[in-house]
UniProtKB/TrEMBL annotation:
One of its GO terms (biological process) is CTP biosynthetic process. It catalyses: a 2'-deoxyribonucleoside 5'-diphosphate + ATP = a 2'-deoxyribonucleoside 5'-triphosphate + ADP; a ribonucleoside 5'-diphosphate + ATP = a ribonucleoside 5'-triphosphate + ADP. Keywords: ATP-binding, Cytoplasm, Kinase, Magnesium, Metal-binding, Nucleotide metabolism, Nucleotide-binding, Phosphoprotein, Transferase. The lineage of its organism: Bacteria, Bacillati, Actinomycetota, Actinomycetes, Propionibacteriales. PROSITE patterns: NDPK (PS00469), NDPK_LIKE (PS51374). This is Nucleoside diphosphate kinase. It comes from Nocardioides daphniae. The gene is ndk.
Amino acid sequence: TQRTFVLLKPDAVKRGLVGQILARFESKGLQIVALEQRTIDAAQADAHYAEHVERDFYPPLRDFVTSGPLVAVVLEGDEAIEVVRALNGATDGRKAAPGTIRGDYSLSNRENLVHGSDSPESAEREIALWFPAL
Ligand code: ATP
């Protein structure tokens, strides 16, 4: 079994999609290990997106993820990292396949509702950053 870190970004909260998105993860068989709604500051955004801080798309991404409450989640299950990324779909909601979270609910490259860790190393780093008590 494996743990992964998931964010339901501020667009998910604003649009009232938290329950529907969590239902997809739960229905798939993933267990919720931790879950908390938070509003983060720029420093937390920079720490989470450390690998993107220098990218052109980052300043508006930082504004977006600090714009309102988000929901931070740790999920556990067999191959949870890959399974969550498959459920999330491609980064750009306009290109993500129907049936995925982004493919069904997002029409944006930035406001794409969810984040999921992309490797075991990222999952470990992100879980420690967001839920240091775990
Ligand atoms: P995540 O890491 O959030 O699961 P991802 O791995 O599919 O998404 P990354 O390439 O790591 O995508 O980018 C992180 C986030 O930055 C994306 O989810 C999206 O919100 C934003 N982003 C990425 N590329 C762009 C872009 N070209 N324009 C605007 N926003 C972008």
